[in-house]
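Example with several molecule types.
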Amino acid sequence: MWFEDFKIGARMELGSYTFSEDEIIRFAKKYDPQPFHVDPVAAKDGPYGGLIASGWHTSATWMKLMISLRQSTPRSAEDDSPQGGPSPGFFDMRWPNPVRAGDTITYTAECVELVPLKSRPEWGIVRHKNEGFNQDGKMVFHFIGQGLMPRREPGSDLPG
Amino acid sequence: MASKPELYWEDFPVDEEATFGAYEVKREDMIEFASEFDPQPFHLNEEIAKTSLLGGLATSGWQNCAIAMRIMWDGYLHKSASMGAPGVEEVRWRKPVYAGDVLSMRRKTLETRRSKSRPGMGLVRFGWEMFNQNGDLKMTMEGWAMFECRTGEKAGA
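Resulting structure tokens for the full complex:
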């Protein structure tokens, strides 16, 4: 997709993911071995009353579903856009409720801002509000993500 | 918590700076993480990565966040009375991280306060910078973390 194809307010369902205890522990052992992420017994007496997923696991799973959706969506015949670029970062990441083993999280994305770049006229920044909800409808995940998307009509300040 | 924590909320004074870690990014870990969570060509394919904005095969930014977490754990969280984090205010992926990079994190304590809603808990806002072995700034991060207080209503009860 080109930068110009994004519309503020457009919403996407990215899909759902069920977190197993094994996966929660495997991720956390490698990257976030706090007792409430790796040890179901110790977690019972911890601040969350049980094992919960690392917030970074919840976040990386958002990326997994986003990419999966993107890669499974066939391009239309007239879409000749190059690949999107990397992201410069994100804002306002929140994990307002824990993700526990067996929880199924449904992720959504809504386009909230489109920023043409002076410094890189052939790219624009697309900002999405991304959220995740568990099977009880409680929000477990929120952030404002950013992606570089190629411009169909590069900015007029393009050198040369 | 296997043993009694050494670091409570009171042990993070404002303006304190500390540096943690020498975490080597291994190619196989990079491929494993990207395959599972972020299978974009510039995280998996050397040739495509070279011509991308990343300039070479680079980690997923989400792996950089996860590695930052691991450096924090190994550096000080393992001996702290950590109660997790409510989120992260901002992350900037400044430069790509490549296989072979050895990463460290510099922490600055920006702000601290006791929780109003949860007696016995305190919050600390940290600013973080991630560097590689050459001092290249790779990532910055800012956000609150939660710790048990050494003294407080809970401890005094």
